[in-house]
Structures are given as C-alpha cells and as structure tokens.
Amino acid sequence: MSEAAAPAPSRLAAALWLELEGSTRSLGLLRLATATLLWSSWGFPFILHFDLHPLRLALALSFYLSSLLLLLGLWTRVAAITVALTLLAAAALLGAADPAVWLTQERQLSLLLAVVLALAPCGRSLSLDRLRALRRGRAHDERGPLWTLRLLQLCASVLFLTSAFGQLSPTWLGGHVFARPGAPAPAWAAPLAWTMLAINLVGALGPWWPRARLPAITLVAGAYLLLYTLMDLDTIALSIIALLFSFAPPARVHAVIDRLHGEAPRELPGR
Question: Is the residue at 105 inside a domain?
Fold first, then answer.
C-alpha cells in the first residue's frame, strides 16, 4: 500500500465520527434527560412494596442509586454502566416471566438510551465530576469522542423508518386504527394517518441534511410532543425527542450554553 493511500482509513473513520472529538455538553444534556426518563419509565415496576424478592430488591436498589448518580453526574462512568447493566438484567431475568411489565416499548427505548450513554463520555460536562475536578484544580476537558452521538442518530433513523414501514398498510392508511370496533373510520382519521407517516419519514431522513435539519427536528419533535399531550404515549414521545436531540451540532450546543452563562462562546472541534 502506498503512503498516499494509507490515510484513507482515518478519513473514513472521521467521516463516521469514529475519531471526531468535540464538546460533550450534548451528551451531558442527554444524560440528564435519560436519567429523568428512566425514573418515569422504569421507576414504577421497581417500586419496592410490589415485591420484596431478593433479586428484584437488589435490582431496584441498584437502579435507584445508580440512576441518581447518573443524574447528578457523580462517578458518572460507573453509574452509567451500572444503570445499563441493571436494566439489561431486569429485562433478561424478569422480562421473560412478565413481558407486559418489563419489556414494553417505552422501557425498551429508554433502555437503548441508557446502554448508549454507558459507552459515552457523558460525565465530562454538566456534572458533579467536572465540578469536583475544577475545584481541585485538575484539568477537566469537556471534549471527548462523539461517535455515540452518531450511534444515537442511526438508532433514531431506524426507529422512524421502522415506524413508517409499519404504517404502510391499508388498515393504517385508511385510518381504521382510529375507529371504534365495528364502526367506520372518522373523516379525519385517514388524513391523520398519512400525516403521521409523513412525519416519520421526515424524522428518518430530514435530520441528515444540514439545511433541512433544524426544520425537520422542530417539526418531528413538535408533532411527538403534541401526541404526548393528546394521546397515551407515556414516555415514548419524550424518548424519541431525546434521540432527535442527538442531531444537534455539539459545537452549537456548547455555544448556546456559554451564552446562557453570559460567557463568550469558545471554539471547540465538532460539528
């Protein structure tokens, strides 16, 4: 292989964000959102008075302690890994016996966020870990690898595409899913079904184009936020909005937070 061809793998890795580093404030915000979503989606089945079986008790205590540390950003890497392993254990050990409780869509989606955060440097920003390091006079760089943001983006697109493909049926497109049993579909049902299909396609493809990114994220996030308030979507809609946030350019997120603090935005690598 010639010397000129040697850098090709690194260029490919950079294109895939495997080597790109930048501000981790986006990951810090996603950490805060995910910890809150975990309490909302997983807190109920872990309530201790339901069942004091030793396994469930151990998983519940592990979940509550590690998720609190994750929210605070204290010993963040250990907390994030512990949360992910605890939820995976609960899904594997308790989900088979009661999938209606442990393997719901909202819990699977929040579990995905927890697993990806366990791989990310989400404690370098907006965390007690950073505050403690600064108070001790230690250098605590907010930069870090951003490939986990790319992974979340891919997960978001797969989720939207899967939803869109599932809606390509006469039952959905005709609006019959909104009708009462034995009754014809309301006049508004079919337009609503087609609108939701279009929104999912925009969510899958729009954020990948820089010029369409902001309008696409705004449209899809607003639609799911509206669905969250009007329909029984639990925390699914909020988890989807968290996934959409992964498309926000890290450098811009960093600059916005600087402005909110009254500081001049600093240049950090990252798109």
Answer: yes
- DSSP bridge pairs for 21: 145
Torsion sign, CA atoms 60, 65, 71, 73: negative
Q: Determine the Cα–Cα distance for residues 243 and 175; give it in Å rounded to an integer.
A: 27
> pLDDT of the chain along its 271 residues, tens only?
444 443 444 565 555 555 578 899 999 999 999 999 999 999 888 887 666 788 888 999 999 999 999 999 999 999 999 999 999 999 999 888 888 888 888 899 999 999 999 999 999 999 999 999 888 887 667 899 999 999 999 999 999 999 999 999 998 999 888 888 878 888 888 999 999 999 999 999 999 998 999 999 999 999 988 877 777 666 888 899 999 999 999 999 999 998 887 776 565 544 4
Q: How many domains does the chain have?
A: 1
DSSP category for residue 164: H
Domain holding 17, by residue range, is 12-260
User: Does some domain include residue 40?
Assistant: yes
Look up the pTM and report it: 0.85
Residue 267 belongs to a domain: no
Backbone dihedral angles phi then psi of residue 144, each to the nearest 5 degrees: -170, 170
Among the listed residues 146, 118, 117, 140, the one whose alpha carbon sits nearest the alpha carbon of residue 128: 140
Residues 189 and 56: beta-carbon distance below 8 Å = no
